[in-house]
């Protein structure tokens, strides 16, 4: 298993980090050729596992379920599983000496944040994901095999990362105008000493404005 992980890491590095010229040079060396040959089985195995897993999903679930509930559950899992450990670290004081801000949030304040997040996620995010499904379909979203190539995935990630950052920046500046800050954006700044989960702690209107505006800026075909 450890060897497979090493080979997988090497194959990912080869696929995503090396240019065509670099790869040609690498293959000319004995070590590089050996690494590439050893990585081929892991590349094939990884692709097979991913495609088999995706085939299971599209066989047992509809596109609507995958695009709405599937996306929601994936977001909730990643968001809370990555954020909750830092609450434990803060309460235990294990990394306090590395903090720039010396104050800590009380357990009550942390619990309030989590409760509000769950309320907003289920009452705002999830319904919007559900009603947005027809829009995604009109944008050309598909779930069928074969899966997009890594070039398509990488290109879309880079492009939409830049686009989202642009829209978010200017939207954030608008929210810092006097009236909007007082009535909407001030909720996001409620925690003077923020922690990981406060990144999505915001007024429902801000969630709608900043969190979902980007997807409607430039429609394009995509894979679920």
TrEMBL record:
Chief subcellular location: membrane
Domain of life: Eukaryota
An MF annotation (GO) of this entry: oxidoreductase activity
Organism: Gossypium mustelinum
Name of the protein: Fatty acid hydroxylase domain-containing protein
TM region positions: 33-57, 69-89, 117-136, 148-170
This protein's GO CC annotations: membrane
GO biological process: lipid biosynthetic process
Keyword terms, alphabetized: Membrane, Transmembrane, Transmembrane helix
InterPro entries, per the entry: Fatty_acid_hydroxylase, Sterol_Desaturase_Related
UniProt family annotation: Belongs to the sterol desaturase family.
Subcellular location: Membrane
Ranges of residues in domain Fatty acid hydroxylase: 158-218
Protein's UniProt keywords contain Phosphoprotein: no
């Amino acid at each position: 298993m450890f060897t497979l992980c090493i080979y997988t890491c090497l194959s990912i590095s080869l696929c995503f980090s090396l240019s065509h010229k670099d790869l040609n040079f690498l293959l000319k060396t004995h070590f590089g050729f050996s690494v590439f040959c050893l990585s081929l089985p892991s590349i094939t195995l990884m692709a097979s596992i991913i495609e088999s897993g995706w085939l299971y999903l599209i066989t047992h679930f509809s596109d609507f379920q995958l695009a709405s509930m599937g996306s929601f559950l994936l977001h909730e899992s990643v968001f809370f599983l990555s954020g909750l450990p830092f609450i434990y670290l803060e309460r235990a004081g294990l990394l306090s000496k590395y903090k720039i801000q010396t104050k800590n949030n009380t357990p009550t304040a942390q619990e309030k944040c989590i409760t509000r997040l769950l309320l907003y996620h289920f009452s705002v995010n999830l319904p919007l994901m559900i009603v947005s499904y027809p829009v995604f379909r009109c944008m050309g979203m598909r779930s069928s095999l074969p899966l997009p190539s890594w070039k398509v995935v990488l290109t879309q990630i880079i492009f939409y990362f830049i686009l989202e950052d642009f829209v978010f920046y200017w939207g954030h500046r608008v929210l810092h105008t006097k009236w909007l800050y007082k009535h909407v954006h001030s909720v996001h700044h409620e925690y003077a000493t923020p922690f990981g989960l406060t990144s999505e702690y915001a007024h429902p209107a801000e969630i709608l404005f900043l969190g979902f505006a980007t997807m409607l800026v430039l429609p394009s075909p995509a894979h679920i």
